[in-house]
Amino acid sequence: MFIKNNWPGISWAIIIFVLSSITPPAIYIPDLFDLFTPDKVAHFIIYAILVFLLTLGFKKTPGRLSRNQFSFSVLFSAGYGGLIELYQGYFLSDRVGDWVDFLANCIGCVIGWLVARFAIGRSEKIAK
Question: What's the half-sphere exposure (Cβ side, CA atoms, 13 Å) at 72?
């Protein structure tokens, strides 16, 4: 039941892992402010999608996950983002773990949480 309800979030997490393992092309991006570079915006979006998908999956899963869908999805996604940064820093020779990337991941998690709360709240009001 868990896998059936959460396959979109699990699939997205696998895609994040694969993309995090690939060497990026060398692109010069001006460093105006680290949190607003295209790379960091991509982190926001990727982790917002992960939280959104996990929240929807957890909502369908009976038990504790359903009752705490927002907390679990944010905590899992932020922890996953941190582990990906550690993986890049310690196990990949052509990538680096970056605390600003982790911060961008966490901001994306919060954005995903807000979007999911809004979307689920709206759908529940419409269903009533």
Answer: 17
